[in-house]
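User: ok so my PI wants both of these folded by tonight, can you help

Assistant: No problem, let's get them done. Here's the first:
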Amino acid sequence: MYQPPFAEFVILHVNLLSHSDYFSNAVQFFFLLLCFPALLSLLDEMGIRKYPLWIVTVLLFTIPNVVLQASSTQNDIVVSFFILSATGFALKSFREGGFLNFLYLGFSVGLAFLTKGTAYIFLAPILIIFGLAILDKTITSRKLNFIHLSLVAALVAMTLNTGHFYRNQQLSGNILGTSVKENNRYVNQVKSADVMTSNLLKNMSLQLGPYPLSRISKFSVVSLHKLLGLNADDPGANWQGGPFLGASDFPSHEDSAANPFHFLLIFIAVGFIIIAWLKRSIRVNHMILLLMLIIFFQMLLFCWYLRWQPWHSRLHTTGFMLSIPIIIYAYQFKSLFMRMVKVFIPILLVYAFLVILFNRSSPYLSASFTRDISVFDSRAKKIYANKFFLFDEYESIKNEIERLDYRNIGLILDREDWEYPLFRDIYTRPIRPVHIMVDNVTLAAPYPIENVNCIVATTVNEGFIEYMGQRYFNQSPVNKYVWFYRAVKY
């Protein structure tokens, strides 16, 4: 209702143009391909040259969570592309100036904001440092052209979001569209150094899987919390006040897959670079030091602001992509690290291949930790892989709606309940679904229809529902998860 919609806009238009949802997942895959030239451009802007191209290729395309998301309709890869692009154009704009560089910077920042809320967190340190650098350059040169160009970039970024901001403002009185209740679902109740430290440890542990490493990392994090006088299960800092769960035991779901080998390579690379910088054994690239500082502040801001959530591994995608130049730089100057990377490369390839084969939601090979779905199952069945228990009831209601040729469909759904499976085949058949009897800020929006033909509910299992002067009788009272009501006038 309010989350930034760019990736979903693209998916919508792909579906409308193809009259199907066969290519919905291709959007993330396409943007992953775009991340490659964006990453190469960033390496060039940072002065990192003469590196093995195949190393960059493997590092990018074997990040387990990225591999899994590339065949999903998530949006973390899309936003990562725009953040990579924004970082590159920020460097290029500072060094070269030029209207086009600032224009592309504005587009990159604006589209990142329009894609996902995490862009505000990841871009904040980049834009703050860029702004300070531009201010220093302006004072030094005593010319205002960089300020003028920066204002153009800011105007472009804001203009791209104007429609979305205006809609949110009209609906909820907030340009970000979040109510106090909704905001509290994601944001730490108390923002302090203790909460930030706790969340930093918990977020790092999400990358330390699979089993048995996941259990070891969870035990270590909980023990460290006790040693520091902190609470890993702090309800004010965890998703929905729940307990800290640790990394997933089985790293093959796009929401929770850990990236342990990339995580280890990043930490070792950072360690080598810091040691070299402190010992002054080489002249360390200042851009690499700046990138390390940016990623460090991104991590701190992420953990200070957001509650810990079990699927934060997916939200870390941007950080892993931004860290690849750090690995490449350490690979260039440290022979020991070069040998380590070459040892890791086959491990990364095999691990990524296994993740694809045993993709939990759409496995090529089934196992005890994959969903109860086979590569040979029907496409309709595969859609329900993550909630297969809904298959029979949803499909029977979907078929009944199509048989009766109902167009105006009322929906009474809980916050996390599925809607799309009911309407996945309607790209050539006009329907008008509308959420009714809602209890959130959307009450302020006028309903597009009054006379609904039927009601689909996941929260009401009664004999009938009265709505707008009509009585809708339950046609599926024996169902467990979703119920179908037909209209009868009285």
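One down. Here's the second:
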Amino acid sequence: MTHPYQHIITELYRIKALEFGTFKLRSGLESPFYLDLRKVVTYPALLRDICTALWNKINEKNIKYDVICGVPYAALAFSAGLSVLHGVPGLTKRKERKQHGTSKLVEGVFLPGQTCLVVEDVVTSGISLLETIAELETEGLNITDALVIIDREQGGAEALAQQDCRVFALFSITEMLDVLHDIGLLPAALYNKCYDFIRMNPGPNTDHHAATSGKHTDHVAAPQIITETHPPRLSYEELLPYAKHPAAKKLLETTHYKQTNLICAADVADPNDLINLANTVGPYICALKTHIDALTKVTPQLIEALKELAERHEFLLFEDRKFGDIGSTLLMQYTAPVFNVHQWADLITVHPIGGASSVKAMMGAGKAAQILIAQMSTEDTLTDAAYLQKAVAIAQQYPEAIAGVVAQQRVHQNPGILQFVPGIHLVATQDDKGQTYNSPEVAFAKRGADFIIVGRGIYQHQSPDYEAARYQNAGMGSLRSPARLIRLYNLCEHR
């Protein structure tokens, strides 16, 4: 289907307001594309078309305002264009308060309490918009909405939504890529390179399109996946030949046999609660994730009881110790007689902060396959794109020791590296500890999950077995019904 603003997208490409190559961003990242809408002022017809499209968006979304103000300086031309062409009362905000004359930061006529619609050319992290909004609010204006030409899909819209400011974009960067690819201006290889960059650098607070925030962002369509480099998902049975570690094979066999990709995170402190939970949810899970060092008491009898339940209900024991140190220390911790993790755990988590040498130090010391923590689900995680890429590289280097990675997005196409996505809840939300949650459907449709990890959504429920069954059905149901998955994907994109 033709995009309603396809002509604007192609013109932006023609005048090189959207360029492709290698560009270093202010964040230090190297981007395969660059946006510079300051060039638009040299093309009056295009400027007029964009301002008309922005005006249509205002009417389409019934955005209420008294005055309008552009973020300095790139967006000033567009806010001025709206004022001239459509009679919108405009304001001009300076980057710095002038030190002479009236010393005003905001020029124009307005009254305290009036609603100001903020206009921006491109939103990336949202910092410029948030700074402008804060300064306008200091002047007594009320800000509820922002009108944006392009959303780079790197967390800005979601950051603004968390501050109760809705973002309405003419189009997202992935929509621009889709249009340019569809009409033959963007080769598939470059399309995929750009899309992978967006996917690997979504910003700290984002599910790309505010699926977790509950706020509205105005996006249209999910990016297409070009099949030559993004093969269809393999079944768990089809993944088996790619698994190199015995524990990874056992996990896939268990998942296929029991028809569950659910891992229950038993984040409890009481040993009795752990045993009761394991027995209750055992029939519905492929693995039980433990924090053995968080228990109030650990005895050989407790470990034996866990092993017996794992055998009876056919699930793996997944110790979430998150080993992270130099190799010799890791090995000592892994084999320490206090917990004897190396003797009973099938899977263990490892922070690759020490590099590949730490991973190698633990190889062969126990029966467990390592799961590297490549990315965390807290809103302010320090596991950035560079860290994520290095973690995945280590996992690909040592498949005989590493079964997969914990990550919030798919960053590779290696079927031998399984992806575990934590922070799953049937109702996407956020807690007061900075933990962000995604629904099972989002985890598989957008995060590329092979396995979902659910904690509080199960063990805090009054009927953990009932809830575990729901998560089992949600996880496997997403994979059994691709059409349903696509519908849910699109729902998340439009939420």
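The radius of gyration is 25 Å. The CA atoms of residues 282 and 313 lie 5 Å apart. Good luck tonight!
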